[in-house]
């Protein structure tokens, strides 16, 4: 049987080694070496370098596991387990010299997240979780907040940056939450947004047009902290990031109802 705790602990070490590389490169980062993958979609040599480090180190932890990576460093697929990696979640923040940006490492079994690590790079924060093992920030267990209504909730989101097909609906949803919650924050790193719900800093998060590597680690961390995650229809399985609604379990039904009302019209 796979020991998910041991695997998660080793993944933390891989994340910390990668964090050292990212921090070193941030000191003299050359923005001219940034590439554009698509409209407003940036990638740097730091993304690629981080991913190579992670693939190498994670391959030693579970040689049988495959990889789903943002930068395509490895195309290997496992028969059951796959590492799902975002080597620098928040690249735009990084290239502009602002936080947060994160290393996100998820482990899936037959497509469902079973372990995850999110390293808030440069901030001395490592979030981790494994199935039935709880959620942790550094060495301390964490839980979602006890807020029970949107009127007592702080909401996180990610603004569309290259897919504007649902922008009108999104802005209407945003306007609604501006009027009915404690406020809205946009940090630019989905893995951090999910981790922050897990430790009670945010109550809820929604976004569209993400990818699986943006959310795989955060999903298991949030669930193990007592939260819920689904798409805009309420489906909580086989999530790929294209639609995501996440919240503590008390707020989740009300939050999902509101997001669905605007985003599915």
Key structural traits:
265 residues; seven-stranded mixed sheet; five-stranded mixed sheet; 7 helices; 14 strands; globular
Describe the structure.
35% of the residues lie in helices and 27% in strands. The protein is of the alpha+beta class. A hairpin with a 2-residue loop joins β1 and β2. It contains seven helices and 14 strands. A seven-stranded mixed beta sheet has the order 3-4-5-6-7-8-9, sandwiched between helices. The mean pLDDT is 93.
Terminal CA distance? 45 Å
- Which regions are unreliable across 5 or more consecutive residues at pLDDT < 50? none
**Strand fraction band?**
25-35%
> What is the tally of helical segments?
7
Instruction: State the shape.
Output: globular
Biggest sheet features:
7 strands, mixed
Structural class: alpha+beta
Number of strand segments? 14
Task: Give, in order, the helices and strands.
Answer: HEEHEEHEEEEEEHEHEHEEH
Helicity, as a percent range: 25-40%
- In order across it, which strands form the biggest sheet? 3-4-5-6-7-8-9
- Kindly provide the radius of gyration, computed on alpha-carbon positions and rounded to a whole number of angstroms: 17 Å
Mean of residue pLDDT values: 93
